[in-house]
Amino acid sequence: MVKIDPSEITPEHLYLSRRKFIKAAGAAAAGALALAACGRQDVPEEQATSEQQGAPSPTPEPMQPAATPDVTKPPATTPEVGLTPQASEDELGSPLTSYAAINTYNNYYEFSFGKEEVAAIAKGFESRPWTVEVGGLVANPKTYSLDDLLQFTQEERIYRMRCVEAWSMVIPWLGFPLGDLLREVEPTSEAKYLRFETLLDPARMPGQRSPGLDWPYVEGLRLDEAMHDLTILATGLYGKPLLPQTGAPIRLVVPWKYGFKSIKSIVKIDLVAEMPTSLWITQSPAEYGFYANVNPNVPHPRWSQATERRIGKAGRVKTLMFNGYGEEVSSLYEGMDLATWF
Ligand SMILES: Nc1nc2c(c(=O)[nH]1)N[C@H]1C(S)=C(S)[C@@H](COP(=O)(O)O)O[C@H]1N2
Ligand SMILES: [Mo]
Would strands 266-272 and 193-198 be described as parallel, antiparallel, or unpaired? Predict the structure, then answer.
């Protein structure tokens, strides 16, 4: 078994997130009234004060990890998709985050609030067969099977991923531009936004059985953001198909936005006229906006966004405007006050 360098995984968030989960479980017991009160605090966060971090508590019943998943072996060959990382760093010279860290430190609340137990709890999640229903304001609505989606030319994209909680990774994704799919379904002239939905299946996603969040996970993009060449639907990473914890079989990746925009395990994409309400906006509108462009100058109400912790690297690195993709995307936001349109 491959050992994970302890510096790649820090325990403080686990303590915090476990504590938050306990709170959610407590609310379940207390009944629906407690639900609203607890929900607002169950937002992703990392920079908690030490007082907030209680001692680690045992994980409640439905969240027990099954067994250690075999996610620590970096792929040798890539028969499934045929692409291995072409580079060992991003265009700014940042080394790729290890395969092990990418697959063992995850935000995926459908499975757990505990980043380091998502992989174990999601292990065995069946993502075949799978369909993605694309409809709404389009000329050619279509339900895509996974095989249909794999017909789009898959390419590698090495992107930084910056979570709103101020940690980040560098991930060699495999996938295809969302624009390729959109050109096929042909949005009508009324279509202005996309609304994405994750699978809703509490029987297979234990986190959806706990209160606090308004399932299913929903996210949105403006149509021009969705058409931007940097925006991809990812089907793999490090040359291998996605594992359940990273959003198998297909997830969105929008590298200039905070990680929560990059919705996992998508089953539905609707073209719509109005700005969709995402799960996080419903949850905490003062903290999570629709645009959510990475912006070091606009602090989250509860922590600074000026720096980030790069997983696998000591210390902190400066957070870049638009996560370093400003040259490519800043024109999308001309005339908008980025301090208020968060
Ligand atoms: N359906 C769904 N998508 C999701 C999330 C989630 O909890 N559920 N978490 C988001 C957040 S907060 C982040 S930072 C990224 C994490 O992606 P990763 O675990 O592959 O690094 O996924 C995003 N997509
Ligand atoms: Mo995140």
Answer: antiparallel
Structure tokens at 113: 């609030």
> Does any domain span residue 49?
yes
CATH number of the domain enclosing 161: 3.90.420.10
| Ligand 1 close to Cβ of residue 109 (< 6 A) | yes
The CB of 295 under 6 Å from ligand 1? The reply is no
Residue 226, domain member (yes or no)? yes
Does 116 score more than 50 pLDDT? yes
Name the least confident of 46-55, 153-162, 211-220, 311-320: 46-55
Centre of ligand 2 from the C-alpha of residue 259, in Å: 4
Task: Tell me the C-alpha distance between 127 and 247, whole Å.
Answer: 9
Q: Residue 209: pLDDT above 80?
A: yes
Contact 120, 244 (CB under 8 A): no
C-beta of 217 in contact with ligand 1 (< 6 A):
yes
Domain assignment present for 338: no
Q: What is the pLDDT of residue 81?
A: 52
- 107 Cβ closer than 6 Å to some ligand 1 atom: yes
Atom of ligand 1 nearest to the CA of 265: 1
Query: Which segment of 53-67, 107-121, 163-177, 216-230 scores lowest on mean pLDDT?
Result: 53-67
- Choose the residue to mutate in 97, 260, 319 for probing ligand 1, maximizing ligand atoms within 8 Å of C-beta: 260
Token pair belonging to 250: 């297909």
Secondary element (H or E) of residue 220 = strand 218-222
Q: Determine whether the shortest distance from the Cβ of 117 to ligand 1 is under 6 A.
A: no
pLDDT at residue 133 above 90? yes
The reply to whether ligand 1 has any atom less than 6 angstroms from the CB of 210 is no
* Closest Cα to atom 16 of ligand 1: 107
How many domains does the structure of the chain reveal? 1
Interacting residues of 110 by C-beta distance below 8 A, sequence separation 6+? 198, 199, 205, 206, 207, 208, 215, 217, 264, 265
pLDDT of residue 339: 84
Alpha-carbon distance 145 to 321, whole Å?
A: 36
- Structural domain contains residue 283: yes
Looking at the predicted structure, is the pLDDT value of residue 4 above 80? no
Supply the range of the domain harboring residue 216: 6-333
Tell if the pTM clears 0.85, that is, is over it: no
